[in-house]
UniProtKB/TrEMBL annotation:
Domain of life: Eukaryota
Protein known as: Lanosterol 14-alpha-demethylase
CDD domains in the cross-refs: CYP51-like
Key word Signal present: no
Length: 538
């Protein structure tokens, strides 16, 4: 009878490689999976939201969530109710769905939920230090107040003409639009909806918000810096803020170069102190001071400008792409949009004159197209916060089949998904259909919801001016509460101007609207997404 020692000793001297390999690659993982499953089955904490069943620890539900968050959220809601926790690469993410769920998270107390800890790893290397999620919340609230100075009516009025200039230049020079310039009835061309609109919006955003110096460099060095910085603003950067990879090095180099570029602009402007009025964000930020009297520093201004560039670019370019894809698909809506332009802007000689900011705000068809597109394709599907003190879940929100109150424990993350309430069949008629007319009927639920989100709802001032709180609205593409978007009006000016001008110039056609691609930072259209166009035949 061999002793145990007899069996073990040879292993210690000469490793049994097959056994070692088996243990490492199959035994341990299998053991971890069994342990993980057993823990879920037998050790469920009855005081916390149910945990989405998963086999592999750490990875958890990352694949299902990452591939299609809508499908994942709807399926888990059926299984677990409105509040549940899933594992995302080692993080415990507690989702709270529905209007009450949105309110729990986006209306959460500062002592309980924290955005900085959820986002800073992604944003600080890209924006730079001292701004947004690299500072305590009260500082962010003041920085949002500063930015709002630059987003005023007077500036918006000037922006409409600048955007028109950029569009005219784009359609006259962009190689993809050569068939337009040929101009015949049979000269159909096509363009990639997202790529071309990204190009256009970076030009319009830099011409308007960013200022003439940035716009002048946009055809040159700044464009490369932007590309490198953008390459470091992806979901991978969320999970791994710093890796020894070329893309990370390029990100860091671009951040520094861009920051220095803004600094030099600021310096030149201060030296010049010209009488010439600049209607841009830099001009507005140059004069701001915090409540304690400290002036906003030039480095902070530079980093705020980068933050605005990143916050506005993909959100706007994706939204305009989706708008175009839908009107290319729905000829009746495209016709209505064109008709609205003709009715409002025709001149005696038959041409259409430039719109003004005020006129753009009063075009119901245009407005309904943007609103409906943001309902079905909100660029951001998940809004996250870190839980810094236990959050009690109101009984009305917990899993309906269990009537005890639950706690979301400190250390978890919470995730709000207003994208789900925006297409919830329990709330909307034909919830998944893109149907702008739902917004133009003044008696519809949709119209009332929008009014509540923007005008009539509870008003609060978090430090950046009075806003509609909106945390319980089923429709909130721009978020709600203290982190609510401040770029909403600017986005409408930019989208509205571009859409108006495009529908005047081009007829658009596509067979089918592509599905969502969720592997990008924001929800983009999957390829192929080529829109056919020709010069509009009058
Ligand atoms: C269609 C366009 C846009 C959409 C759909 C959009 C959406 C959003 C959403 C959902 C949030 C809330 C994020 C959260 O709660 O975690 C947000 C915040 C914000 N957005 Fe936008 N945005 C758009 C355009 C812009 C533009 C053009 C700018 C800049 C000019 C901008 C600047 C900001 C800023 C500064 C915040 C505040 C972040 C915070 O307080 O934590 N956005 N946006
Ligand atoms: C900035 O301050 C200067 C002097 O205090 C003033 O003349 C100028 O109008 C201000 N600019 C803005 C954009 O507020
Ligand atoms: C989705 O986006 C990723 C990242 O940009 C891209 O690599 C991939 O090709 C896209 N998928 C489709 C089907 O368009």
């Amino acid at each position: 009878m061999p002793s145990i020692w007899d069996t073990v000793q040879p292993l210690l001297v000469v490793p049994n490689w097959p056994l070692v390999a088996f243990t490492l690659f199959i035994g341990f993982p299998l053991f971890a999976i069994v342990l993980n499953v057993a823990r879920q089955l037998f050790l469920r904490n009855p005081n916390e939201p149910p945990v989405v069943f998963h086999l592999v620890p750490f990875i958890g539900s990352a694949v299902a969530y990452g591939m299609d968050p809508y499908k994942f959220f709807f399926a888990m809601r059926d299984k677990y109710g409105d509040v549940f926790t899933f594992i995302l690469l080692g993080r415990r993410m507690t989702v709270a769905l529905g209007p009450k769920g949105n309110n729990l998270i986006l209306g959460g107390k500062l002592s309980q939920v924290n955005a900085e800890e959820a986002y800073t790893h992604l944003t600080t290397p890209v924006f730079g230090e001292g701004v947004v999620y690299d500072v305590p919340n009260h500082v962010l609230m003041e920085q949002k107040r500063f930015v709002k100075f630059g987003l005023n009516t007077e500036n918006f009025r000037a922006y409409v003409g600048m955007i028109e200039d950029e569009w005219d230049h784009f359609i006259a020079t962009e190689p993809g639009f050569a068939p337009y310039r040929a101009g015949g009835k049979d000269d159909w061309g096509h363009f990639d909806a997202f790529e071309h609109m990204s190009e256009l919006t970076i030009l319009t955003a830099s011409r308007t918000l960013q200022g003439s110096e940035v716009r002048a460099q946009m055809d040159k060095s700044f464009a490369h810096l932007y590309m490198d910085l953008d390459g470091g603003f992806t979901p991978i950067n969320f999970m791994f803020p710093n890796l020894p990879l070329p893309s990370y090095r390029r990100r860091d180099k671009a951040q520094k170069a861009m920051s220095d570029f803004y600094l030099s602009i600021l310096q030149k402007r201060r030296e010049k102190a010209s009488a010439e009025v600049e209607y841009d964000m830099l001009a507005a930020l140059m004069n701001q001071s915090y409540k304690d009297g400290r002036p906003l520093g030039d480095r902070e201004i530079a980093h705020i400008m980068i933050a605005l560039l990143m916050a506005g670019q993909h959100t706007s370019s994706a939204t305009i792409s989706w708008c175009l894809l839908h009107i290319a698909h729905r000829q009746d809506v495209q016709d209505a949009l064109y008709k609205e332009q003709v009715e409002r802007f025709s001149t005696p000689d038959g041409s259409l004159r430039s719109p003004t900011y005020e006129e753009l705000k009063d075009l119901p068809v245009l407005d309904s197209i943007i609103r409906e597109t943001l309902r079905i394709h909100p660029p951001l599907h998940s809004l996250m916060r870190k839980v810094i003190a236990d959050i009690p879940v109101p009984p009305s929100l917990g899993n309906a089949s269990e009537d005890k109150s639950l706690i979301i424990p400190k250390g978890n993350f919470v995730l709000a998904a207003p994208c789900i309430t925006q297409v919830d069949p329990g709330i909307w008629k034909n919830a998944f259909e893109w149907e702008p007319s739902r917004w133009t009927d003044p008696n519809s639920e949709a119209a009332a919801m929008y009014k509540e989100y923007t005008e009539t709802g509870e008003k609060v001032d978090y430090g950046f001016g009075m806003i509609s709180k909106g945390t319980e609205s089923p429709y909130q593409p721009f978020g709600s509460g203290r982190h609510r978007c401040i770029g909403e009006q600017f986005a409408y000016v930019q989208l509205g101007t571009i859409l108006s001008l495009m529908v005047r110039t081009l007829e658009l056609k596509i067979d089918k609207v592509p599905p969502h691609n969720y592997t990008t930072m924001i929800t983009t259209p999957q390829k192929p997404r080529e829109i056919s166009f020709r010069k509009r035949q009058l």
